[in-house]
Amino acid sequence: MRLVAYLTTISLLLSLAQTIRAQGLVIDGFMRGQRKANLWLNYSQASYDTYYVNKTETRNPNLGTVTTKALTAQGAYGLGYDLDLLVSASYIRTETSAGYVPKQEGFQDISAAFRWEAYDYKFGKTRLTWLFTLGYSIPLQNYVSDELTAIGRGSRNLDVRTMLHYKAGPFFLTGQYGYIRMGQVTLDRIVNYYDPSQLNPNSGSKVNVPDVTDLIIRTGLATKWLYVDVWGEQQKPYNSGTNIGPGIPFPTNAVGFTRLGANLYLPIAKQLGLTAGYTTTLSGRNTGKATRINAGLVVGMYRR
Fold first, then answer.
1. Given this model, what pLDDT does residue 90 score?
2. Between residues 218 and 203, the one the model is more confident about
3. How far apart are CA 222 and CA 219, in angstroms?
4. In the beta sheet, which residues pair with residue 207?
5. Do the Cβ atoms of 220 and 229 come closer than 8 Å?
6. Which of 39, 44, 15 is nearest to 288 (CA)?
7. What is the pTM of this model?
8. Strands 126-139 and 157-168: what pairing?
9. What are the boundaries of each domain within the chain?
10. With 50 as the cut, is the pLDDT of residue 6 above it?
């Protein structure tokens, strides 16, 4: 029984790596503008002591509280009035408060995306834009992705999104929908697992990471002196994937969640401001029921 519990703990920690440690690009509906740029330095801390096995909430004393701390740098530059380039990279540390699980830390992934404003409609003082983004992420180093406290999944991912952005005075409302194509991951062990529903069946040490769809709704106020928003996100596995269990490799688990959050920006000087945010997990699948706080510094224009 102890062995089964230990193996389940291992599978859990590996599965939770996706959403708690994924520190990808933050993509909104505000274009930078031609030859305008900003740099965002952000510190975040996420923790949980409850997790989901499939969709069932569970606690495990062998884990205690799992904490992930991340330092992320994201830059945006306006290549044209309707085209932006966004780049992001993170340094991450993950550890548990119980058991003998070693902490892991290091550079995770680098992500880049083009954001294109395809259409721009103006109705008096209101504005509606239709945007598309195309992004790609790769690991910054050859970190271990099949360990208890792995800092990431180690896959190369293609991210395609479309969004509608509405603005009327200071009020804005943005809706975006995306599809993330996950690449294969090579483990340091042989996997005796086969799923015929996968596009590329798992074989040897190579396994498939289930693709996901991502829906985000964001609304708030954006003025010269204040930016505040609230948002909701729902991520669902596109492929069937697996659930947490003994012997199941972490990358093959299907991970999903529903989250709510809020952000605040206050300028403190010209082209300089502070940000803060909070995120909570409402429901999930094979992930931690985590809360996250973050604070950061923005150099340059925050929103347009």
1. 94
2. 218
3. 10
4. 185
5. yes
6. 15
7. 0.86
8. antiparallel
9. 2-300
10. no
